[in-house]
Every structure is written in C-alpha cells, then in structure tokens.
Amino acid sequence: MTATCLQFLSFVVSALGWVGILIATSTNSWVQTCSHGAASCRRFDELGSYGLWTECFTSFGIYHCKNLADILEIPAYVQISRALMITASILGLPAIFLVLTALPCMHLGSETESVKHKRSLLGAILLLCVALCTAVATIWFPVGVHHEKHLYNFGYSLFAGWIGTALCFFGGAVISCCTGSAADRTENRYYYSSQGSSSTTSPTHAKSVHI
C-alpha cells in the first residue's frame, strides 16, 4: 500500500514538474540583463530580459523585443540550451504516459505485473533524463549570459525550469525505487506460492506410488 501511494504521488509530482519545464521552454523571461550599473538600470528602468527565443531591452523609454531567429548569430550556449529544453519537453510526454499506465489502478488488457514494472521503470528512466537535460540547460544558460552580458537577476522562466527539474528528478527516483521493491515482492510471492503448491502435492503423489 505504501509503494502504491508513493508511486501515485510521484506521478503527480512528475507531471507538475513536466508542466514547469514546458513553461520554462515556451517563455522568455530567463534572466534579466543590465548594460549599465545596477543602480542606474533600476533608476532609469533599463532592465532587459533574455531568453531562449527573444531578447528584450529598453531604449529611450521604449520596450523593444528582438527574435533570436538567426542561427549563425546565436551564441552556442543558447542553441544547446534550446536543444536540451526541447528534448526534455518531448521526452516528458512518453515518460508521463508510461508512468500513468503503470499505476496499480491502470490495467491494459491481460498484461502481467512484470510488464507493468518494466514500463514503470522505463518511464522513471525517461524522467531522470528529462531532469538531467533541464538541469544542464538551466545552469549553463545563466552562466553563458553572465560571461557575455551583464547578468542582473534570474527570471521566472528559469525558476520554473529549476522547480521542474527537482520535481522530475524526485518523481523518477521514487518511481524507480518503488518499481524495484514491487518487483522483488512479486518474485518472492511467486516463489513461496510455488513452494507451497509443491509441498502440498508431494504427499499425495508419494501415496499413490506406494499403493
């Protein structure tokens, strides 16, 4: 019962983490930049924002946004962060589906428990890969911005990515642990049941031979 509750809780947590990763991928408020001193930027409201898809800045009191569409001009850390976040977003869909269909309350035809455990373990591995891709992207991007521009603060998109990373990592780790323990219990139950059946049938068989 405890393993079932943990598996269901991990599914909910992982789904929320994947939603956070989708929000981080689709929005552009990753970091706030400042081309001058921090005090000057706050005083004259000249803070800019930099994300995976657009760069926004304030010039003469007017807010401008520029799409980062030219691949040849985009820095390498932006391109790699894009690829990692897109990969994490795509891998999250089959991971959530596998974990959902592997819940104890879900049954697909006449499948055995070992098949459900394998599907749950595969979903957990995919969730860990999602967390790894997002962690690399959300750490590498602000470091790259810090070296190229004047990093002022982190944006809500980056926080959404960090929260999604933590939730997916937690969900994948717990699901993998619950899957292993459930598989061991199933194997032990099958072993003891087979031993019990053999012990009950052996006296009857011996009696028939004696007669």
Structural commentary:
There is one protein chain. The chain has five helices and five strands; from the N terminus they run αβαβββααβα. The chain is α+β, with helices and mostly antiparallel strands and 211 residues long. It has a single domain, classed as Butyryl-CoA Dehydrogenase, subunit A, domain 3 (Up-down Bundle), CATH 1.20.140.150. Strands 4-3-2-1-5 form a five-stranded antiparallel beta sheet. Strand 2 and strand 3 form a beta hairpin. Helix 3 packs antiparallel against helix 4. The radius of gyration is 26 Å and the shape is elongated. The two termini are 48 Å apart. The C terminus is likely disordered.
Task: List the secondary-structure elements in sequence, H or E.
Answer: HEHEEEHHEH
Main beta-sheet strand count, sense and barrel state? 5 strands, antiparallel
Average pLDDT over all residues: 79
Question: Shape from CA axes?
Answer: elongated
Tell me roughly what share of residues is in helical segments.
Answer: over 70%
Beta-strand proportion: 5-15%
Tell me the strand order in the biggest sheet. 4-3-2-1-5
Low-confidence stretches: 185-211
At CATH level 2, the architecture is Up-down Bundle
CATH fold-type name: Butyryl-CoA Dehydrogenase, subunit A, domain 3
SS-derived structural category = alpha+beta
Number of helices: 5
- Compute the separation of the termini in Å: 48 Å
